[in-house]
Amino acid sequence: xxxxxxxxxxxxxxxxxxxxxxxxxxxxxxxxxxxxxxxxxxxxxxxxxxxxxxxxxxxxxxxxxxxxxxxxxxxxxxxxxxxxxxxxxxxxxxxxxxxxxxxxxxxxxxxxxxxxxxxxxxxxxxxxxxxxxxxxxxxxxxxxxxxxxxxxxxxxxxxxxxxxxxxxxxxxxxxxxxxxxxxxxxxxxxxxxxxxxxxxxxxxxxxxxxxxxxxxxxxxxxxxxxxxxxxxxxxxxxxxxxxxxxxxxxxxxxxxxxxxxxxxxxxxxxxxxxxxxxxxxxxxxxxxxxxxxxxxxxxxxxxxxxxxxxxxxxxxxxxxxxxxxxxxxxxxxxxxxxxxxxxxxxxxxxxx
Length: 352
Description:
By secondary structure, the chain is mainly beta. Helix content is 0%, strand content 51%. It has strands at 17-22, 27-32, 38-43, 47-52, 58-63, 69-74, 81-86, 90-95, 101-106, 112-117, 123-128, 131-136, 141-144, 154-157, 163-176, 183-197, 203-208, 213-217, 222-226, 235-238, 244-248, 253-257, 269-271, 278-283, 290-294, 299-302, 310-314, 325-330, 336-341, 345-350. The chain is globular. 48% of the residues are buried.
């Protein structure tokens, strides 16, 4: 019988928080600076808070997008730059130390729903409506793509930063930095709702509106599909070796093995224990730990290569309101995990 995560409360496998904090509204996500010094969190109402990552002391709080906010991400290279995307049609570059606005990036009238830094931190991709825009790290415009088939629902960079992928209805499109403005289409007649590019750049995985996971082997354009999910797969996570793909679309997490000839014809690892739909997934950059978060506010750690038994579980503070887990982020060294939820709670869990 699978272990129920809530049964771990009070035991040796209960995760202990390093610190907790509360935002003023629904927390849309958390992101670490590349050096692990800062942790940024944001609310859907547009307020950004930057914490000292070790102590949880607030460095600053600022209303950045008063009309509402959609996304945030620290630069991969420069630990002092934070990008945000808002419902006011702009992206912003903020100074991590004091919240000062370094640059304002106009994206038209559509919400900026996605911001993504290239792995080397030299480029920022923003998606608003049907258009992808690329900017230099200083916020200078470099490329605006033609309107795509429908609203962009996901953005992901290839591991070497040579291409950036966008997904929407009709498939995925890969945009080349070397050939400015050129792209190639990976066609699929359906609506894609999430995307994750394997670290080695070989595999592009997408969650679909029809409750399946569709993926392509990018070098050959050969595609395949995993079906049978009860709900849309909105969260995908690759391990650092590009060997495992974790997917959510149920109360269970399904982990597919891509080593050898897999995953076609293989049996995935199923991680059971959450009491509600899994809403967030994140693998350590190095190491085999997978974090999952669910709609009941529970955060869990797993080692899929070693089997389906949970390594530990973390819970909200007793007596407080708990919302769905809306974001998970590993610190670069893999020794701390940040989570946030719909009640506005932000927690950093220490992982030995």
